[in-house]
Amino acid sequence: MDTAVFEVGAALLGACVGSFLNVVIWRLPQEDPKRRSLGGRSHCPKCGALIRWFDNVPVLSWVVLRGKARCCGGPISLRYPFVELLTAALFWVLASWPPFGPVLLPDATGFALDMEAAAALGLQAVFLSLLVALTFIDFDTQLLPDALTKPGMAIGLVGGLWPGVAGVISNDTMTSHAFRSLLASLAGLLVGYGVTWGIRAVGTRVFRKEAMGLGDVKLMAMIGAFLGWDGALLTMCLGCVSGAIAGGIGLLLGRGSRIPFGPYLALGAVVVLFFERRILDVLFVDWPDWQRANPEAQWILSAVAFLCLLGLFAILKRRRFG
Fold this sequence. Notes:
The protein is mainly alpha-helical.
């Protein structure tokens, strides 16, 4: 019962955080400094009227108002409840399957709070919140604000010092755990920044135009600070795969060739946060075992590669002649 209450409470907190993230997503990209401020009460973006508290309840208010503002009848975007539900779902998953370990430990009196796991849970909740906000801002503006990525780097490094959300960089017990975990977070930040910056530099030289924004580089540095160097590399791989798939579908549908990369890096980071160990086992244990047990695996891989090549040619042809 205690764990169920904890998980439901985490989801409700996530919905409230999602409501605040909607404010961040809307206000932070604004050019007017007054409108960019995150302080003060919410106003209707259509008529500017002050939104009353009972019309600002996450998800429920949108349902009661049927997606229309009470003050002027203007439409309220479906994104608002979607962001709130998404953040609630992420917080619920985080509380149900905490990557750092259980927060509530059984004891003689029922359950005891593990302080390190609770601190890690809080830091990872901040990490997920930053990823949600950055994702939707990037979709809207193709920008990743320093106001979110740089504090995210700092928070990730603090989490590396204690409780060690990025793991440890070595198993040398002669060195303190805090120092090794801080090194893991710092190594993740440097690897995330360095690899992404290198890809950006090579792509810009090859294509003779900016292949990736500096915001993506800083985002990967933030992700590395939370997930470590191996998590940063895996995030980059997953982001490239999901971004390529989405970009290919967009080209085939005639929606242009320029897509924001940040949302796919964020998606990869969420997957790595919860499934990194399982993914690594599949890639370096299960997959090699399957290949050894199935000699025809190379033909399957060749067929998949050929189909991907045909798809690439189709995309390029459509882009050239469409």
